Amino acid sequence: MALVVVRGAIFGEFADHVASEAIIALVVFSGIGWGAGWIIEYVVRDSVEASFRRRVEWYRQGIADAGLLEDNSAEES
Predict the structure, then answer these.
(1) Membrane-crossing residues (predicted)?
(2) pLDDT > 90: what percent of the chain?
């Protein structure tokens, strides 16, 4: 938005024209930011969930190897 204002000042454009272009730029870049944020949120959430599931499986495997876990997998399903 600041770049639009600076460009308008350099080229001597009217304030109403510069303001409308700045608002359009703001809306466009907020949409781009929303889309990028949504994608990043999905990727990070998926990564954290996968890491958590691997860690829980590693923990359960360690407990099972130590003989401390009863086999209740048939009851859980």
Answers:
(1) 22-44
(2) 48
**Nearest CA among 32, 65, 19 for reference residue 2:** 19
pTM: predicted TM-score of the whole model, two decimal places? 0.58
Q: Taking the C-alpha atoms of 56, 60, 61 and 63 in order, what is their torsion angle to the nearest 10 degrees?
A: 140
Strand residues in 22-77 grouped as ranges (E): none
> What digits encode the pLDDT tens for the residues 26-55?
999 999 999 999 999 999 999 999 999 999
CA quadruple 22, 25, 31, 32: dihedral sign: negative
Q: Kindly tell me the burial class for residue 69, based on how many C-beta atoms sit within 10 Å of its own C-beta (0-12, 13-18, 19 or more).
A: middle
